[in-house]
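Re: zinc ion structure - here you go.
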Amino acid sequence: MHFRKLVLGFGHFMISVVVLLNIPSDFIPQAKYVFNYFGNSWGLPVDIIFDKNGEAPIHVLYGFRNEALSLDGAVFIPFDASLYDQQTVCTLCDCDGFAALGKAGTPDTGIDLVASTFRLLTMVDEHQIDSASRDKLGNFFVDALPEGRRRSIDLPLVDYYAAFLLDKLLALTPELRSNILPRWPHGKKFAVCLTHDSDLIHMGSPIELATAMVKGFVRRKRVFFDMALEGVRYLHSPMNSSLWGFSGWAEYEMDHNIRSCFYLPVSPRKSKRRLNDCKSDVFVSGVDWKVFQSMQKQGWEFGLHPSLDAQKDLEEIVLQKMAVEERLQAPLMGLRHHYLAIDNQNPHLTFEKHVAAGFSYDTSLGWQEKAGFRTGTSLPFRPYDPVRKRAFQLIELPLALMDTYVMGQGDVEVAIKAGRRIAKLICDVGGLININWHTETHCSKYIFLNYLTGLKNILEPLLKDNDAWVTTPMQIAEWWNYRNKELQRNVLGMKNICVE
Ligand SMILES: [Zn+2]
């Protein structure tokens, strides 16, 4: 897509938001990272300076204020080193009328919103989770989070901060308003993308059958035997099974004139299989790749759904990516890990593998079992690399809403309400509603009863909304990269210096 044609105003000279940093040098990379994030959220180029030089206007002062720096026309954000600290205990506060994560005991107006943003985007509070509350792969449930973060799991706090700061900026410098780049193309107010993790490719594969039988006996539930029977019935023709959701989704999405992305599972190529890895993959016999190739040509996207141990092993990720690309005859640009199992103690170690493997975006950052905002934002962003102290060349598309988050209780009305609630929160901040409904749930039976009804009731009102940009994840990642480059170009053009 050629975005330039879609947006009026791109390319003309823009006034930058000038941010003066008066903080200890150790914190400068983190602050630059956060202001770059804010610039992308606001749609304004941000120019970082370290000294008040001459009469040039300063729009934001972040750090210590002293007599020489009493800048009346600037937004002042106080600096608090302790809010960058992993061990600092944070609480959910009311800050000028919106929710914020701050250090316990800080006056509400004194919260360092830059540090709080850094804390949320880089998931700092998760370091306080003890190892007993994590599984072998480091995954955890939200109950294990420290209290302040646990109470804010479904609030897009960072989006609130960005909106609050932009309001203040525009009140003090109204001329910035005409410079704002639209957040989404076509004048849309928020974005929606539908994605499908594909966990169950062939019910008739030996491990699927064995697992269903064991679950049937242990849980004393007939539904697992029924699934096993379906597996046996389509032993040699998995694509005819109702659990083969690809064709059902393709038909549904064609009817609604949308396209989605499927994340395809691959069994470990060299690392060991784990119990919870997908029990069948896209290389089982009976899968006709011409179907995927044809869908890809018609606008559907395919990404990788790596096995559990892949997070630790670049070669494993590359082998899985190449295996799918070879059969699909198209590159995979994005991925979402099975069980969202990135390295949850050191997420950057997984992100650097994504970059090295040649992915453009990841979409694995969501809570294990609850809808909400693991990084405090519903917007795309580039994750932080703590080693090189700058953003990765990778877009993260946060995952806010997944089928299992809301469908698990079995009451479809409750699920629809919960899904619509999250969607509304995101609409209100102009974010990205990134939805994951597993491929195999299209059948809407067995253990996936009512799943399709749930999705339709959450998604279809959004499809009818003229303010929604409904598109695929790669289109969103490309748009976000393009827009970021435009913002950087304006800063570079003005200052001719390298701005990270
Ligand atoms: Zn999965």
